[in-house]
Amino acid sequence: MPSQSTAPSLFNPLALKRGPAPTNRLVLAPLTNTQSHADGTLSDDEYHWLTMRAQGGFGLVTTCASHVQANGQGFPGQLGCFNDDHLPGLTRLATGLREAGAVSSLQLHHAGIRALSELDDIVGPSDHAETGARAMTEAEVDTLVEDFIHAAKRADQAGFDGVQIHGAHGYIIAQFLSPEYNQRQDRWGGSLDNRARLLFAVLDGIRAACRADFQVGVRISTERFGLVLPEMLEITQRLLASDALDYIDLSLWDFKKEPEDEHYKGRTLMSLFTELDRGDVKLGVAGKIMTAADAEHALAQGADYVAMGRAGVLVHDFPKRIQADPAYAPPQTPVQPALLEQEGISPTFLTYLRKFPGLIAD
């Protein structure tokens, strides 16, 4: 249980370089939920699930990954942002989150070689035998950059406070960053500068295309998915130095874990990144943060905010609960389906969550 003297730091506003400041340091992480319609338009279930978390006190609510191209879809029922037909739903969602008191961010995504297998044309940085993906042409990479930018402009038009570029979890930007998955010999492959070109082209393009107070974040993985930890430290330092960026979201799987790279054992993975010079860019962490004590520990170790997934699924008003009682903890898993239904989880989302062992009781 955190002391009364440290717990209030979670409820200090998070001042970002641009746009409104979230009222606290508790962010709803971007979570796949498969609830939207087959064409990528927003469903009532997805709207309800997200606005319920905004009403529950999360300072910033991030949507699920929203694909910027039709062939970048990674999940059934995925929210889309690749077509103007998506604008009415996106506008409804941005409005609902604002009215509920949260700062809003639309996560922008392309699955690359991890796209749904039933899609006709799966693409990535290079040919990939296991998935049948083919290498994108240079012109297609240029188009991908433009489509990320167009998606951000739709988010801006819809009234979102900002976007989060999904550069994590082995999706297309992470695939380009990886020397394992990116075997290109053109300006998009080879050196680290070339492999990072896609990420920075998207970031800089969005900053140039959207309104001055539009917030832009990046979510990255720091290891796994063919990534190299020293390279990711270098990329993160470059991101932190970019005036185009407002925050970085580190997806760590466990914020207390040690690095997998043997050269960095003996300290937490998180600490490698919190010691970087971040200027006025904020740095958040995600990974098994389930209590106020966990969140306070992450802040004490140098994070500016915490992004919460499972806790936000289990308890829609987790921030309000721990503000009232810092000793509060979410229900122990596995939980009964009825509990999740009360927390705004639809039958479709419930089916998806059954994939995670130990979460839902049979």
TrEMBL record:
Q: Which domain of life is it from?
A: Bacteria
Q: Which GO terms describe its molecular function?
A: FMN binding; oxidoreductase activity
What the entry lists under InterPro entries is as follows:
Aldolase_TIM, NADH_flavin_oxidoreductase, OxRdtase_FMN_N
Q: Which segments cross the bilayer?
A: none
**What are the record keywords, sorted?**
Flavoprotein, Oxidoreductase
Which Pfam families does the record associate with it? Oxidored_FMN
Q: Where does the NADH:flavin oxidoreductase/NADH oxidase N-terminal domain lie?
A: 9-324
Give the matching PANTHER family.
BINDING OXIDOREDUCTASE, PUTATIVE (AFU_ORTHOLOGUE AFUA_2G08260)-RELATED (PTHR43656)
Q: What is this protein called?
A: NADH:flavin oxidoreductase
